[in-house]
């Protein structure tokens, strides 16, 4: 930290230090140069002085850039530091990356509301929200280095250039690498403000948009990468919970005395919805859990049957009184009366589990006086970067130190704090011993938080020329934006549009699932468009081409996808292609080629082509990987995955009854074309997944003449449609 003796010269202090953190000030405050490698100390200084440390430099030329986002396989540990290094003109081979302290007011990106900051790795917003933040921070660090070199050489700053971690003065042919500048650093007073116009033009990028290996992949390959589940601390104990499989039910433990005498059991903790067990080992905790005898109350979910509720939803959709208006453009009712032809269809989607690879877990150590805590967790963070721990313990946020770990899959589930809060409640009981809470796979299925079940009713009208003039979309389901998002048709020229949400509540735990409401709602929208085109004998690409006439960027993705897939070419016998357009931050058109085994009802996806406009593409290889992963996850959810509930109880307990896509079922090829753009980057993690259902269903329609309207497209449902 800063030298405690005020008489010590700052430069002399820095000369004796091996590294320095550049704290870039906010709200007009000057930066500080701090010799400090401890993240907790840096967070404390940054919080008290309203400063941000983005990079740590060492005299040997090594530098550490801090990543403010979660890393769950989407590549933030590379893409965000890459933006910083680009503007800093750093030598990428000397860059290391660490997680930033979890301090939203310091390291937060742009929130959903103006003036707010969030550390929240959700909604495909990471690159989008940090694009300018990271670039400005890198440019500011570069400016400090240039200023220091200019002072050292006694030359005008504008005569200096930087490239690949080196400052050069062409006039005197002198050079100095960034590491050599560490003991010479001085701060401009005042520090120059970096405006967007001061940043590089995309055509000047040396790192962004290039083939760059991901920083965390080597550690993930050799096994040295640390996930929360890998954490082992001295004197650590273990916690598990029995939550039942009736959401919202209250437990009454009837054999507490028996459980307390079991080997290793340290404590039993009763929560409103669960019984917690703390034991010396995980094995002992799980063994005790097996022997729990619990009487469960009824709950709001007790009468819920997921496959029967659609009848209720259909009646709700038929009521004349509209729900909450989401989108209103023109006059849908008047346009429908004038329409030459009208179309009505209902689309359904069942509950889906996140099924992330790493089971939910966390480690919390509460101090003996209960006034501070450390947390080790893989989290997608959230509006509260301390993940609910301060509220539970009744302590200030700065007393909680979150050690963010890699995530073994998130998909929205790890943006909930429930498992961290549970861990804290148990850890408080054994303070100061650290406690690891483990959710079993069965816990995650039976007491999961699912993508909502919903029904979408589409009513559309065309004029005498076959032009789509009216489009009404009624969404029925629980979860607010979890079911209501993704209903917009901003890139289709439809003069009269209405989207509304009618709320239903069944007492089931719900959560964001990759692409949120876009999956079910784009499924309904894109399938309706194809059904209209099919009915009118119009090619679905040609039909969309007219709809996109006023949206050139969307149209470019359609044209490119058609080209990639040879849309108008000859298709092998027994196969057909289907198209779908999705906007989820980035713009993308997907086309798939399928075949159907008419005896078994199994759909096989042979090829998938995607054309994507994501604005500036920071890390192309990673974007392609994101699209491929999104397609495969989409296929799994569309063809296989299904949570069913009977009398409020989840029927699937593990992967033996919750099917996932297998390796032998993946497409032969997935081809992604990235459209060159200089626009602000948009998210890509949630663009591919929603296009899968509609593309497959549209290919099925083309091949059979019959629509698929209920996800997932299980073999029995496919056979039912084929035989109808």
TrEMBL record:
It comes from the Bacteria. It holds the Pfam family MoCoBD_2. This is Molybdopterin-dependent oxidoreductase. It comes from Robiginitalea aurantiaca. Residues 222-300 form the Aldehyde oxidase/xanthine dehydrogenase a/b hammerhead domain.
